[in-house]
Design brief:
single chain; about 290 residues; alpha/beta; seven-stranded parallel beta sheet; two-stranded antiparallel sheet; globular
Length: about 290
């Protein structure tokens, strides 16, 4: 069995988690909307993740909506003491499956209550405020009022730790004046590296960086180049892309998602892949 502990651990709030975790978004139906095609298969993936040593699961109540959290509750509750479940708030789903902002303080608070209920928890380990702008990338703008609403729930004991998603460096600094920030979750992968400076800055502060879409964003040409290196090493492109992220910085925590047990184990095995300096240089050149 793969030893995902070989990739090391890092602090996520007051807990140490393995750097290879699991993202539950793909457990919902197509386009992250509605129930999964095979509910038993979705439950099996969650249980297989824990059996493989995963102690960090990323989710949100707007996945489905509600579906993914309900699956996590059914598959894993009562939760192991070492499991850290990270969720996010700031969006909602329309009846047509559209993604809509839900950023008002009252909407953020309601989202926290929804996550608590559907996960079957009395307190959420980590809540990321998903800052919605144009598309999925960060958009500058003040977040004080919205982040303060979540900080108040933290003071009430409903949230242990707070993080940010799709945030700029300025927004991280703004949030830190209100409450401690334990993680930042932004789009980042081997060919989308706008956050290079932010990752290093967060590392110096002991703050985790959690890239979403760690396997996405490859054009055909870049995918071919990545595939050529992977074939030479006898691994898959997915494994190579994840191993590069683990090598990028010690504060990088991975949450690759899948609805397949086979792909889950393929992703987790990246934790054991050691890349030479020459290979890392080749991969860096793909940017």
């Amino acid at each position: 069995m793969t030893n995902i502990g070989k990739a090391g651990v890092y602090s996520l709030g007051d807990r140490q988690v393995k750097r290879m975790g699991y993202g539950a978004m793909q457990l919902a139906g197509p386009h992250v909307f509605g129930p999964p095609k095979d509910r038993d298969a979705a439950l099996a993936v969650l249980r297989a993740a824990l059996d493989a040593g995963v102690d960090h699961i990323d989710t949100s109540d707007f996945y489905g909506p509600h579906i993914t959290n309900q699956l996590i509750r059914e598959a894993l509750r009562p939760y192991p003491d070492n499991l850290v479940i990270v969720t996010k708030v700031g969006a909602k789903r329309g009846g047509d499956g559209s993604w809509r902002p839900a950023q008002a303080p009252d909407e953020l608070k309601q989202a926290v209550y929804d996550n608590l209920r559907n996960l079957g928890l009395d307190v959420l380990d980590v809540v990321n405020f998903r800052i919605l702008g144009a598309g999925i990338g960060p958009l500058e703008g003040y977040i004080e009022e919205r982040f303060t609403a979540l900080a108040e729930l933290r003071e009430q004991g409903l949230i242990r730790h707070l993080g940010l998603s799709s945030a700029t460096a300025a927004q991280v600094a703004e949030a830190q004046k209100i409450a401690p920030v334990v993680c930042v979750q932004n789009e980042y992968n081997i060919v989308k590296r706008a956050d290079d400076a932010l990752i290093d800055e967060l590392s110096e502060q002991g703050i985790a960086y959690v890239p979403f879409f760690p396997l996405g964003g490859f054009s055909q040409l870049q995918n071919e180049a990545l595939g050529a290196i992977a074939r030479r090493l006898g691994v898959t492109s997915r494994q190579l892309a994840l191993a590069w992220l683990l090598a990028r910085a010690p504060n990088v925590l991975l949450i690759p998602g899948t609805s397949s047990v086979a792909h889950l184990h393929e992703n987790l095995s990246s934790a054991e892949l050691q890349l030479s300096a020459d290979v890392l240089a080749e991969l860096d050149a793909l940017d």
